[in-house]
Design brief:
Elements: H1 12-18, E1 22-27, H2 37-48, E2 53-60, E3 66-73, H3 79-86, H4 88-106, E4 110-112, E5 115-117, H5 119-129, H6 134-141, H7 145-159, H8 164-173
Antiparallel strand pairs: 1-2, 2-3, 4-5
Helix pairs in contact: 5-7, 5-8, 6-7, 7-8
Length: about 180
């Protein structure tokens, strides 16, 4: 419902988060005097569902992508906010690491050193970087050795290198062989 109503473009928490790296608290009762009616209405709608306040940490990566970690509460000024504020720096570190982990796990495409790999090319290269042969990888993924070779050859061509080992080296240099 939230995205269907296009409230994303009006949500005051998202709009503030988009402005830069920031940790801020918010609540339905604190915004009345400084927000336009459309934004206040969004906070009031959230309060009807039990989201009355919270603390949000916004993050922006080097590619300009935005993410936020929000701790929400059914109270406008919960005691939890004081505790969270006390550990703000540690929570920012947790949020950043969680964001990095999620982006790596959920990305549809894999960009390594500026080259976009398919999920299967990426997966085959990752196993090759761990010393697995095409046959080993085929057994792990439940596909034929020929299919693994096909994906490794495609990755090699995309990197513009002559050997699979060179493609693995490019991937390793990007730091994407972990996880």
């Amino acid at each position: 419902m939230w995205t269907a109503l296009d409230t994303v473009s009006l949500d005051p928490v998202i709009l503030r988060g988009l402005q830069g790296w920031d940790t801020f608290d918010w609540g339905v009762d604190r915004a009345r005097h400084c927000l336009p009616n459309s934004q206040q209405q969004i906070l009031e709608s959230a309060a009807e569902f039990g989201i009355c306040g919270g603390l949000t940490m916004s993050m922006h990566d080097h590619l300009g992508r935005f993410a936020a970690l929000t701790f929400a509460s059914d109270e406008s000024r919960p005691p939890l906010l004081r505790s969270l504020a006390r550990y703000e720096k540690a929570l920012q570190l947790v949020a950043i690491n969680f964001h990095i982990h999620v982006r790596r796990r959920l990305a549809d495409d894999r960009v390594v050193d500026g080259v976009t790999l398919t999920p299967r090319e990426f997966e085959c290269l990752k196993w090759a970087a761990r010393g697995k042969s095409a046959w080993d990888i085929s057994q792990l993924l439940g596909v034929s050795k020929r299919t693994v070779t096909f994906h490794l050859e495609n990755a090699k061509a995309k990197f513009g290198v002559r050997t699979i080992n060179q493609a693995v080296a490019r991937m390793a240099a990007s730091g994407q062989t972990r996880s």
